[in-house]
Amino acid sequence: MEIIQSIQNRIYEIRGERVMLDRDLAALYDVETRIFNQSVKRNGKRFPADFMFQLTRDEWESIRLQMESSQKSMSSQFVMTYPSRRPNSALPYAFTEQGVAMLSGILNSDRAINMNIAIMRAFIQIRRVVYKENDLVEQLKQIKERLGEHDVQLNQIYDALENLLDEKAEQRKWEDRDRIGFKR
Predict the structure, then answer these.
(1) DSSP labels for 60-126?
(2) How many CB atoms within 10 Å of residue 46?
(3) Which end of the chain is less packed: N or C, by CB atoms within 10 Å?
(4) What is the pTM of this model?
(5) Residue-range domain boundaries for the chain
């Protein structure tokens, strides 16, 4: 469970996709980022644009800010293998869930296989949480609609009661009026 939590902390949302960065995956697979990326590039046909893409400068800056803030709260949560080997100008690659699944075909060590299974489980857990949230949002919408209908019905009841009270008041006024004419 701890490893899955650690993996979930390395999943980011970029361009509307949940992705993991090459450096995080390399650290999890216990290989250098450079070697990891070389393996991916040798098998480039397996990674179309919807499986893997390179981050823009703005996206990378945004992710770095997130990582810095999470590092302060979780000191050992984020580890990069050989950080000095990656030039500052090099932008990382992001892998979608399908891209991570495709990695299982090119990384065959026991560690890579076990880590791939753990990563897939982390993605599945995130998806479950999102589905639950979406279900709760839908339920809240239905409750809000029902309450809106109830407001209309309560307003109708209030208007009807007000009309009845007005009729009673008028009837009392009629009965309490001074009579004209002969009295018996």
Answers:
(1) HHHHHHHHHHHHHHSTTS---SSGGGS-TTPPPEEEEHHHHHHHTTT--SHHHHHHHHHHHHHHHHH
(2) 14
(3) C
(4) 0.58
(5) 1-129
